[in-house]
Amino acid sequence: MIEEYFIHLLILIGIYLILAISLQLSIGFTGLLNLGHIAFFAVGAYTSALLTLNGFPFCIGLLLAGLIAMLFGFLLSWPTKKLKGDYLALATLAFSFVIYALALNWIGLTRGPLGLPGIPKPSLFGFVFSSNFSFLILTVIIALISYVVIKKTVSSPFGKVLEAVRDDELAAKVLGKNTFKMKTYALGISAFFAGIAGSLYAHYITFIDPSSFTLLQLIPILTIVIIGGLASLRGTLIATVIIILLPEPLRFIGFSSSIIGPARQIIYALLLLLILIYRPKGFFGRVNLK
Amino acid sequence: MVFTQLLINGLIVGAIYALVASGFSLIYSTCKFIHFAHGATIAFSAYVLYFLFSILNLNFGFAVILSIIFASLLGYGMNIFVYKRLRKRKASNVILLLSSFALLILLESLILILFGADVKTIGYINVAKGLEFFGAIITPLQIFIILISFILLIGLFLFMKKTKMGKAIKAVSDNKNVAEIVGISSEKIYTWSFIIGSAIAGIAAILISLEQNLAPTMGTNLMIKGFTAAIIGGIGSIPGAILGAYLLGFAENFGIWFLPSGYKEAIAFIILFIFLLFKSRGILGIKKRGEKE
Lengths: 290, 293
Prior knowledge:
- The complex is a heterodimer.
- Chain A is built from 13 helices and two strands; from the N terminus they run αααααββαααααααα.
- Chain A has one domain (about 1-215).
- Chain A starts with a helix and ends in a 12-residue tail after the last helix.
- Chain A is about 75% helix and about 0% strand.
- Chain B is built from eleven helices and two strands.
- The longest helix of chain B has 30 residues, at about 1-30.
- Residues about 290-293 of chain B have low confidence and may be disordered.
C-alpha cells in the first residue's frame, strides 16, 4: 500500500518534471513568458487519449501527442512573435482559455464535460504497462530522455542563440540570427514535451476531462520553474521533487479531500509569492525575469 | 424580438463588465501591471456580502457598505504587503503580474476552504416579473444594475476630471517622474488607485451577486472579461475600458446568434487574442511607458 503511494508520487514527479523543464525552455532559456503551457499539455492528453481509444497503438498516440502539441506551439508562436512580457503572457493565457473552451464545447470530439473515460494503459511491443511500477519505469525513461534532449538543446549553439534572444533580441538580430524563427523552434520543442507529458498523464489517470487543464494546474508548474530558478535545469529538477512532495503531509493530518485540494493551491501560491518577493531569481537561477 | 433582447442582455453584462474593467484599468493606468487578483477582490467581496447578509443576517444596506469597505481593504492590503515590496526591489512588471496571478489563486482557494465549492445565492431581491420593452424582457433589478453602473461610471469620470486626486492619478499615469517632480507622491497615488479601484470592484461584486449565483471561480471569469474589455478599449484608459466592456457585452450576446451558446465564454478570449495581435493598444489606448512607435 505504502509502496503504491510512493510509486504514484514518483510518477507524478516524472510527469511534472517533463512539464516543468519544457516550460523552463520557453520561460527561462528563451525569455518567453508563456502562460499557455497547460494548453499544450491538454492537446497532448486529448490527442493520445482519442487515438488510443480509437484503436491506435500507444507509441503512435505518444508521438502524435508531442507532434500535434508542437504544431499548436508553432501556431501560437506565429501570431505572437512580436509580443513581449505581459502582453505575451496575456496572449498565451488567452490561447489556453481557447483550448479549454474547445475541450469543453467540442462535444463531438472530446465529449465535453463528461470527459474521456477508459483510456487504455500504455503498451509497447506487446507489453502492457498495467501495473503502476511498470508505468513508473516508462515515465522515468521518458522523463530522462526529455531531460537529456532539453539539456542538449540548451547547451548546443542553438541554445546559446536562444539565450541571446532572451538577453538582447536586437543584438541577436544584428548578428544575423533570425530571432522569430528561433523563438518558434523553442516554443515548438517546449510544446512537444508538454504534449508528451499530457499523453503520459492521460494514460496514467485513464480519465481526462477539461477540468484537468485549468489555470489551477498551471500554478504548480510555474512555481517549480520560478523556485528552481530561471535557466537552470538542475534547479528545476530539485524544485519538482520538493514542490510535488511538499503538500503531501496534508493527507496524513486528516484533512478532508475537499480541503486538501485548495490547501495545496494555497501552499503553491504562497510559495510563489514569497519567492517572487524575496528571491525572484529562484534558488539556482542564472537570470532575472524581465 | 431576438434583436432587442440580445441588445438588452448585452447592455446588462456590459454594465457589469464596465465596472470590473474600469477599476482594473484605473489600477493599470498608475501601476502599469496586470492586476489579475482584481477578479479575486470581486469574488471575495461577493462572498463577504453573502456571509454578512445571508449567514449573519445583518441589515442589507449595512452589509453592502461593509462589503465595499472590505473590497477596498483587500486591494489596499495586496498593494501594501505584496506589490509595494516588489516595487521596492525594482521588480519588473512581469514579476508583478506573476505575483498577482499567485494572489488570485490564493484568494480563490481561500474562498473554497471557507465557503466550499457549492454555489451560493444571496436572494435579497425576489425575481420580479420582467417588464416588456420593445418585445424584450428586462427585470427591474436589471434596470437598477444598468443605472447604478451608469451613475458610478459618470462619478468616476467626474472624479478623474474635477478633483485634485483624480488629476494627480492622471499625472502619475501619464508620466510618473514628472509627477514626482511637481511633488506628487507616486506611492500614495498607487495606494489610492488600489483603494478606489477595489471599491468599484466591491460594488461590481454586489451587483453581480444580486443577479447571479456565487461560485469560487467567478473571479477568474470576471477578470478575463475585465481585462479583455480593458484591452479592447485601450489598456490604462478608463473611458476606453468602459467602451470595451459594452462592446464585449454586445459581442458575446450577439455572438451566440452564430455560435453554439457554449462558446459564449470563448468569444472574449478570441477577441482578446485578436486585439493583442493586431491592435494591442486598443481603440482609445495610451502608449505604454517606454514603448517605442
